[in-house]
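Design request, tokens follow.
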């Protein structure tokens, strides 16, 4: 009997201990480093239903729109303060000829979107429409120019059309098309994935081409370009090394990096967006956390050639890439978005915030109806995904001062495998409020945190949480609000320390004032 009691007591204790992961965090005061708002950028390609159906509706559509741009989508994106929007691709950018997308719509030539489903692109959404969208969103445009199949002249003329405020052949056409003044576009991509769909180039060849294209993409009065070189795929460190060496820090504002989280790690069978077990969840998060290593290693190479960190590392494509939803066009990359995706977004944005000395811009792929979308649409209906809610929670970090954090994460273990369960970032805004974003990846264990804030003085704490009963929970057109933000009351003040009970599988953002 006594033996039995001891056994059940010890089982109970081990259960309690397993339930109570603990750690101590230390947050230091701000220095000079800022978390650029452009880390919270988005990406919209002519791919599947992103532009057409996502942003852009038919001429006689009953869906509320202004000049064919959907107003529900615009309002939702304004709420998360989208700072910049990348367009027209992706792979599409290197087959896009901008002059096909200006002038009277009924006279615009059509083309085949060879990258994405072989569908006919009618070019009804072009330069003017994109820049009108950016104006409605109050965000900066980020245009990717065509290096793969376009000429230097074509790119040079596009920049003249967009940015020159004087008399010239291109500005005459712009004015004829209804735009008197230049838009003054600043973020300028010189190609996309030039190692792959953008021309299958070597880094040596691309570096030379970059120098040539970038030379004739001119700075016009009041409109200096931030030229962005097409960077590496995932852990292709040789690409970064070669670009840094051959292009040189003085010739580019930024160098890109693309890294996608694949649940299985296998491009042929990536895994479902909605049906996965814990094993697959664990592997997905492990793949997501690789972003930390990848960004660290690319940054270290950049440091060698650019110790003053003038060139930004721009992660202008990131997110989870799963198999498409059953029954949808495989070329359209339409996938649902679960609580798992929200944890990926929270984790990745924490990584970027913590590397904001070098990562000064990033773009989630993609805004509407494609890959890790923040918005899904179906005719007149619109759903905000769990990922959308993370961007809503994290917008407090935009342009705030970075706060360094140290801690040792508890482990999330599955069988004999383990990954860190906790990731965090913190910033202080211009009013002095401190924001801490915490992600607990462990689906079974909460984490008890004791946070030392040293010189950072504060009086009150409030918070918001995103979680749900199941990792596979999604927001659908029949249940649009299943995964949503609620008030978080698991944080309290103890002296100048902050104590937090962080629930399993959750994203929490705290505000200390
Ligand atoms: O985001 C989808 C595609 O992924 C982009 O077009 C391309 O750049 C990348 O391979």
């Amino acid at each position: 009997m006594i033996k039995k009691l001891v056994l059940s007591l010890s089982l109970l204790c081990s259960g309690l201990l397993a339930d109570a992961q603990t750690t101590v965090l230390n947050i230091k005061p701000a220095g000079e480093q800022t978390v650029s708002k452009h880390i919270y950028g988005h990406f919209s390609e002519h791919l599947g239903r992103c532009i057409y159906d996502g942003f852009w509706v038919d001429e006689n559509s009953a869906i509320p729109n202004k000049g064919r741009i959907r107003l529900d989508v615009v309002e939702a994106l304004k709420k998360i303060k989208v700072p910049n929007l990348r367009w027209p691709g992706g792979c599409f950018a290197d087959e896009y000829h901008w002059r096909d997308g200006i002038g009277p719509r009924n006279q615009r030539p059509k083309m085949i979107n060879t990258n994405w489903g072989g569908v006919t692109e009618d070019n009804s959404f072009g330069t003017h429409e994109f820049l009108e969208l950016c104006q409605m969103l109050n965000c900066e445009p980020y245009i990717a120019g065509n290096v793969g199949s376009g000429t230097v002249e074509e790119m040079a003329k596009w920049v003249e059309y967009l940015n020159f405020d004087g008399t010239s052949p291109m500005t005459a056409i712009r004015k004829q098309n209804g735009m008197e003044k230049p838009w003054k576009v600043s973020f300028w991509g010189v190609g996309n994935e030039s190692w792959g769909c953008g021309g299958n180039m070597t880094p040596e060849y691309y570096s030379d081409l970059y120098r040539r294209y970038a030379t004739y993409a001119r700075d016009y009065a009041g409109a200096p370009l931030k030229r962005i070189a097409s960077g590496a795929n995932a852990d292709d460190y040789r690409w970064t090394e070669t670009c840094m060496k051959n292009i040189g820090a003085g010739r580019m504002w930024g160098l890109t990096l693309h890294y996608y989280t694949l649940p299985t790690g296998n491009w042929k069978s990536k895994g479902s967006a909605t049906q996965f077990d814990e094993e697959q969840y664990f592997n997905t998060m492990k793949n997501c956390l690789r972003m930390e290593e990848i960004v660290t290693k690319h940054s270290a190479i950049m440091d060698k050639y650019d110790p003053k960190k003038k060139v930004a590392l721009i992660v202008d494509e990131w997110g989870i890439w799963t198999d498409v939803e059953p029954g949808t066009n495989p070329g359209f990359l339409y996938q649902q978005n679960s609580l798992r995706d929200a944890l990926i977004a929270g984790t990745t944005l924490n990584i970027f915030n913590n590397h904001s000395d070098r990562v000064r811009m990033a773009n989630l792929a993609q805004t509407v109806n494609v890959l890790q979308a923040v918005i899904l649409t179906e005719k007149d209906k619109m759903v905000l995904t769990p990922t959308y809610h993370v961007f809503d929670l994290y917008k407090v970090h935009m342009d705030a001062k970075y706060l360094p954090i140290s801690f040792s994460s508890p482990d999330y273990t599955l069988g004999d495998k383990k990954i860190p369960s906790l990731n965090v970032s913190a910033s202080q805004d211009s009013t002095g409020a401190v924001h801490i974003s915490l992600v607990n990846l462990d689906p079974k264990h909460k984490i008890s945190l004791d946070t030392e804030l040293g010189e950072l003085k504060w009086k009150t704490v409030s918070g918001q949480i995103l979680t749900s009963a199941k990792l596979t929970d999604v927001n659908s057109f029949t249940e649009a609000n299943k995964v949503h933000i609620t008030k978080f009351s698991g944080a309290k003040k103890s002296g100048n320390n902050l104590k937090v009970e962080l629930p399993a599988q959750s994203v929490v953002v705290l505000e200390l004032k």
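Comment from the thread starter after seeing the answer: thanks! Residues 45, 89-91, 192-193, 317, 365-366, 371 surround alpha-L-arabinofuranose (CB under 6 Å).
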